[in-house]
């Protein structure tokens, strides 16, 4: 959601910022709606004030014995009572139209976000780690995984495409990854562990920006609730409709949850393997901070995600997303892409975004700065720390051996009960 006052005062700058995301100018249409709504609101307020004033005057006229004046005032009040509902209804309709128009717009990109239309125009900022030199041709996880317990056929038989059944050692490795990530983010980076709901109401997914525009990416239950696409939804909404005590800031939360996505826009993409699933686990990072702290918090969150990859000794690169590849709620996004030797490519494993006050305006989440009279909207950030399934893929491909076995990374051995290697079923 955007600040209507900013649009009123800076219409050209607002349109120019949206144009960097490929959005046509909208300020004139929004300001037209705003002007009409404000005019009707003023009429409603004037009518309410006049009704109250006339109602008081009736008693005064009656007390003074001026029946004619009292009757005239009564007639005026009766007429106002008849005309006001239509005005109030028009006011509500215009307010709803304005809110809908504003809610459909993406966030304004930060000044240092590169302009582009696709991932091809993202900027590589850095690389970490040495790519392993194999004495054999490394395979993709979808080829070595089935013998280790990554069962695509059973998952598809039970639930359909983009579902996988994990069993045995690979199920344990998957669990170990999630627990390791959660422990790392709480003990090393100071995030508070949370166990949030997986089903949320409309206002929650509206607050983080999935509704109204991206409902096709979500799964909805028969009673109208939504399965979370990421714990960002539940964690961020933990502060909705609140004036947060400044002493609580920054708020840093993390959760390991199941996530559910319809992948409506991913037809034909990653149909093979474990990269893109309808149901998956992810360790999510969410921060709620003062506006002046959000840029530093963004770098800190990125470092928290990097730390997991480095602890697992997985090579990766850091990307700054261009305007065309960035999510609608973000003003700036970094992606971490892990090296997959089986694919001979870097693939996204974490996305860390600074949303500014875009979400807090939708959630009405504010704080009162020390010494200030008025409240201000806080800033929110979210990131993956990391996607568990994709990290499993990276471990399988980077730690594979020629005989089809996979070595357990040193950081995960305490979580594997002494198991040091996954071996194929014979």
Give a short summary of the structure.
The chain is an alpha+beta fold. It has helices at residues 4-9, 11-19, 27-63, 67-103, 141-144, 152-159, 168-187, 202-207, 232-236, 294-311, 358-363, 388-398; strands spanning 123-128, 150-151, 165-166, 192-193, 199-200, 219-220, 226-227, 243-244, 251-260, 279-289, 316-320, 332-340, 345-354, 366-367, 376-377, 379-387, 406-407, 421-422. The strands form five sheets. The protein has an eight-stranded mixed β-sheet. The chain has a three-stranded antiparallel β-sheet with strand order 5-7-6.
Describe the 3D structure.
- The chain has 426 residues and is of the alpha+beta class.
- The protein folds into 2 domains: 4-103, Orthogonal Bundle (Helix Hairpins), CATH 1.10.287; 119-422, Bira Bifunctional Protein, Domain 2 (BirA Bifunctional Protein, domain 2, 2-Layer Sandwich).
- Helix content is 39%, strand content 19%.
- It contains 12 helices and 18 strands.
- It has an 8-stranded mixed beta sheet. A 3-stranded antiparallel beta sheet has the order 5-7-6.
- Helix 3 (27-63) packs antiparallel against helix 4 and helix 7 (168-187) crosses helix 12.
- The relative contact order is 0.14.
- The mean pLDDT is 95.
